[in-house]
Amino acid sequence: MRINKIIGLSILVVSLKGQSLATDLANSTEKSNSLHFYCSAIGTGLTARTLDFVEEQLNIEPHQTRNIWIAGTFMFGVGLGKEYIWDRKLGKGVFSKADIFMNGIGILSGMMVKRCLNDWRERKKNELEYKKRILDN
Hints:
The chain has 5 helices and no strands.
């Protein structure tokens, strides 16, 4: 619950229209917020990795930054669609701006983690190539 208040206060400071979002964050349950966060973060990373894998299988040079942005956009559409269609139109849940906000935070976190994994993988590949060059000489 404490993190909801911190996020709510930061939104209030950053945005002039943050009052309704801050209220949504303060009133929403931590379980709901964490569920939206984790699903968006994991979904973004898995979608980006799937796009990388498909490009590798098709012998296309993976464009990892593009794949990360495609995955983030896709997951934002999924989250927004879930909130709008499932919660608002079908009435099977409670429409909340806080859930959309937590989806966005999860997507950004997933994008950052995927970018770090891409950089780590690239460093490992370069390190192996460097060691092969040293051994060949």
